[in-house]
Amino acid sequence: MLVYTFDRTFDGVLSAVFDAFFRHQEPDMLMGEGEQLPLFCDETWHVTTTEEKASRVWKGLEKLLTKEAMRLIMVSWLSEEKELSTPLLHYIYKVFKTGKSVERNFSDADVLHVTNTARRVMHEQLRMKQFIRFQKAKDGTYLGVVSPDNNVLPLITDHFRDRFGDQAWLIYDAKRKYGYYYSPSETGDEALTRITFEDENTLPFSLEDGKMNEEILSENDRLFQNLWQTYFKAICIKERMNPRKQLSDMPRRYWKYMTEKQS
Q1: What is the pLDDT of residue 214?
Q2: Domain check: are 203 and 255 in the same one?
Q3: Degrees to nearest 5, angle at CA 187 with 186 and 193
Q4: Are residues 163 and 72 in the same domain?
């Protein structure tokens, strides 16, 4: 069994494809550096990630795949699924080997794995658009804290930029410790910036429940939160409660950042 090891980056996957063709061998597995090798591994190759190799593979894919297929590959990688590396490498390898797109060949296990992974990511990004709850700071900035299973923030920023283009906002991923800050300007220019905080102790909000610190919370926002919680309880008809349906529509893992589920 031939195993390639890499740095667990997307460019690393593309570089692995480059090495596979350069060495005239398709690896059986692609594993992250430091992972325990399988029992029947008899040969390994460490992939050195370079921008040149990754760029050449990506440009080659653009000539063979549709925009939808290219997006599917990128979206699947946002799942951060460790088991995706091998199917994704094989998927891309088959595209170059056959000289055509394989995106509709769902009888192929690798194609199916990558496609289903991308679908799962896209499903969660839709839920993020529904479940993000914003709080307003005294300076007018809106804050939304989330902790999705997949790294979906890059997929949802355009939605909120289009919807709240005249307001400043920050959407922060508490699980991955980064966020996107959007700020419009009087000149019509806009800026979307990826931000991180060096010291989590200085965060103006809690990573546990996403609540903004009281000293910076807008005076009206606490009132709005209370009104929303009251409204949510008022429209709930106990005789028609269906906990199973509610969990299906609104999974429990999202509750801690949702205003209506906080006490």
Answers
A1: 85
A2: yes
A3: 80
A4: no
